Amino acid sequence: MSGFTARDVPDQKGRTILVTGANSGIGFEAAMVLAEKGARVLLGCRDEVRGRWAAKRIERAHGHAKVEWLPLDLSDLASVREAARRVRKLDVLVNNAGIMRPPLDHTKDGFELQFGINHLGHFALTGLLLEKLGGPDPRVVTVSSIAHRQGRIDFDNLDGKAGYQRSRFYTQSKLANLMFTLELDRRLRAAGSPVKSIGCHPGIAGTGLGRHGRIDALIEPAGKLLFNSSKRGALPTLQAATDPSAQGGDYFGPQHLMEMRGDSAPGRIAGRARNEDVARRLWDVSVQLTGVDPGLAAA
After folding, report:
1. Annotation says 170 is catalytic
2. Which CATH number fits domain 6-288: 3.90.1700.10, 3.40.50.720, 3.40.50.970, 3.30.390.30?
3. What contacts 124, CB < 8 A, 6 or more positions away?
4. Distance (Å, rounded) from C-alpha 118 to C-alpha 170?
5. Which of 103, 191, 209, 230 is most buried, by the most CB atoms less than 10 A from its CB?
């Protein structure tokens, strides 16, 4: 469906949906709509105060909302494992949380922060939750970015110790998100699984994600006028998670201004994201680094 809006989200009663990074920005706005439509929403985030505050905001907005804070720190694989253990059943996993262009830093497990949180944390979470995904239309939704088009996977310097450039490592992590989405879909199809792997991106949205960059601070006032709000930026996520016509391997983003703003519609995937050889290597490296094997053979 092209021009997808929150009004197009079908009834979600009886479904349980986990949204990572749901205490603010795109994740919060998506969780708000999903709860309004009747889903039981798990807010996967690190900070208890912010997580519970987000849950209360959604409950105040929609008295019938079923919302719970799920402790989840994607920079700590032990936390990822514990969060997955707490989840009993799931219809949709939304891999939304992310960090953008911070100074060089590393996760608790020694991974470069952007690659560790944006990709590896979600890779591990997905692998640990796959067997718990069920229901009539189970899905894994992973949020990438139009920045994936500039990304390259540098397997020789994933930790940034041989040189670090903020934007380059951000685009690498977003390319990894999309390559994972497509590789997961290929493996799920080959296994005959009913789970769909679907990607999306918010365009350019005012989410606070770019708080580490000077350029982001300079363009923020103009961005409020030219680009998406967090609420509108959440529409591709909502389409990927709920559109009955969405298929595994689909990718959604804003439909106007070179996919930077507007309602949700099919997005453009850069050719490098479709490189299956690199995607298989990325999968194998991710298994090695995280110690989590989703148990799906290459297609």
Report:
1. yes
2. 3.40.50.720
3. 77, 80, 81, 286, 290, 291, 292
4. 9
5. 209
Q: How far apart are CA 233 and CA 205, in angstroms?
A: 6
Contact between 273 and 184 under an 8 Å Cβ cutoff? The reply is no
Name the pTM for this structure.
Answer: 0.93
Residues 6+ apart with CB under 8 A from 229: 205, 206
Beta-ladder partners of 200:
143, 252
Tell how far CA 283 is from the center of its chain. 17
What is the predicted pLDDT for the residue at 255? 85
- Residue 205 CA to its chain's centroid (Å): 15
| Catalytic residue of the set 170, 180, 227, 283 | 170
Residues of the chain with pLDDT under 70: 1, 206-226, 258
Find out whether 34 and 8 touch, Cβ atoms under 8 Å: no
- Alpha helices for the chain (secondary structure H): 25-36, 48-61, 77-86, 113-114, 122-129, 166-190, 214-226, 230-233, 235-242, 276-290
Domain residue spans in the chain?
A: 6-288
Are the C-beta atoms of 252 and 149 separated by less than 8 Å?
no
**Secondary structure (3-state) at 87:** coil
In this prediction, residue 211 carries a pLDDT of 46
Token pair listed for 275:
């490189």
**What is the Cα–Cα distance from 91 to 141, expressed in whole angstroms?**
11
Residues linked to residue 20 through DSSP beta bridges, in sequence order: 44
> How big is the CA angle at 41 (ends 37 and 46), to the nearest 5 degrees?
145
Count CB neighbours of 159 within 10 A. Answer: 15
CB environment 70-103: b (16+ within 10 A), e (fewer): bebbbbbbebbbebbeebeebbbbbbbbbbbbbe
